[in-house]
Amino acid sequence: MLNILTPKEMYAVDNYSINEYGVPSAILMENAARSSSIYIEKIIRKRNLNRPSVIILCGSGNNGGDGFALARHLFEKCELKCFWIGAEEKMSPETKDNFLAAKNIGVNLIKIESEEFLNEIDFSCDILIDSMIGVGGSENIRGLALSILKKITDNRALKIAIDAPTGLNTEIGFASEFCFKADYTITMFAIKTGMLLNDGMELCGKIKIANLGVPSKIVNEYSTISVLEKKDIENFFPKRKKKSSKFDYGRVLIIAGSKKYPGAAALCANAAIKSGAGLVELCTNSVHSAVLPEIIINNLDVNEFGTISDTGYNLDLILERAEKSNAIAIGPGISDNREALELCAKIIERVSKNIPVVIDADALRVVSKDSILRKNIILTPHCGEFARITELERQEVELHAHSLAKEWAEKLGCIVHLKNVPSITSDGQRSFWTVNGNPGMASAGSGDLLTGIIASFLSQGLNPLIASALASFLHGRAGDLFAKRYNEETLTASALIEMLQF
């Protein structure tokens, strides 16, 4: 599991390292430089660069101090120049020490004091390293730093950012038009939130985490955001016992489909059975031919519009089957028909509070900003559906999905899985971000699959937050496996089911 830090959390980790562990700021800076130099030397070897020309751009803050310290480590291994901006008298003690040390050993330190002087500089080199501002910067860059960024926009050198690209807001991922566009970013302690959000995901390149010589558990203690990795899967799914039966692996009830959208129900049910549920029942009024033979069908009454009707028979049947289930999924393909939605509302209200429920697609229409839900209900909206529930503008949701998902999970009292890039899963306190997957998954039915997988994991006893996050991770992984084997363009939801791997 990879933990992510907000800038505020990062500063807390930094302060804890200094004040509680007793690791001086100067040592942290030195470790950052040493760790960065190791990565850079590996990149140099990988690209077969023989004594490359390197330019380091430094500010006078602590990120600049990282750059001055890095210059010492690279000094004898390349042709090096270090351009810097700011004021020597404003440097922190550790930055000043590294500045003077670099100067004393002979690093070519050149101060950029004016626009006129900047215009005369040739930044041509093999590797261009940005160490001007770091994690404390924002998209509102100005002064000489902005002028430098404008001048190097079209520079063809390999670009490496230390800690964070200058011009990037490392909390929310907004960026200056002229933000340093890195091929690699070497960041401290952990990846920062803004590197995975909005503009940030396009500007950081490959992200490496520097080892600063403090225990990694400190990041775990301060971080409230995690990204799942392949190695996490087995931690949540213990090996199946040889002596077991279908009743040991959960029973899922799915209420889905209509005459117009029978495929949504099929995809949801098939995904549930293919992701480990012992039994899957489907309540629908229209059975698609693709429904797997393992799925148990419960036929519902249909109204004149071809959707599930709000009849006593339908409600009684569904509630009866629900009592025998370990998890329920409701919504895929039911349509926005008023009668179908009224039935959905009754089911959600009357089903046992002990049974976890995934609410997806049109069933989300019965949820409002004033709803009072519970921790074993999972909402799976895309940004448009989330905007409708919260009465916010869709653009605001897309730009601030990471914080809004957490905020509204707390307000509604449930789990929110907000489908975005990245997708955000939150219970209002802790969040998981899904950073895998690819654009090929933006196709009809992909969300129906995810709903089925979440319901399957819930039926197998996983915590609702973990079930949702893990389902999203495996869903994205299936998409990536398909794209690697074939391509993104031919990816379909039904093909994704066959790519699920645990």
Question: Please, could you describe this protein's structure?
Answer:
The strands form two sheets. The chain has an eleven-stranded mixed β-sheet, with helices on both faces. Helices cover 39% and strands 16% of the residues. It folds into two domains: 2-223, Rossmann fold (3-Layer(aba) Sandwich); 250-498, UDP-N-acetylmuramoyl-L-alanine:D-glutamate ligase (3-Layer(aba) Sandwich), CATH 3.40.1190.20. With 502 residues, the chain is an alpha/beta fold. It is built from 18 helices and 18 strands. The mean pLDDT is 96.
Features:
seven-stranded parallel beta sheet, alpha/beta, elongated, Rossmann fold, 2 domains, 502 residues, UDP-N-acetylmuramoyl-L-alanine:D-glutamate ligase, 18 helices, single chain
- Between the first and last Cα atoms, what is the distance in angstroms? 16 Å
Please list the strands of the largest sheet in the order they lie side by side. 1-9-18-17-16-15-14-13-10-11-12
Q: List the total number of helices.
A: 18
Average of per-residue pLDDT values: 96
Structural class: alpha/beta
What overall form do the CA principal axes indicate? elongated
Number of strands: 18
Sheet-strand content, in percent, reads: 15-25%
Largest sheet: 11 strands, mixed
Give the % helix.
25-40%
CATH class of the largest domain: Alpha Beta
> Which residues form runs of ≥5 with pLDDT under 50?
none
CATH topology description of the largest domain:
UDP-N-acetylmuramoyl-L-alanine:D-glutamate ligase
Named CATH architecture of the largest domain: 3-Layer(aba) Sandwich
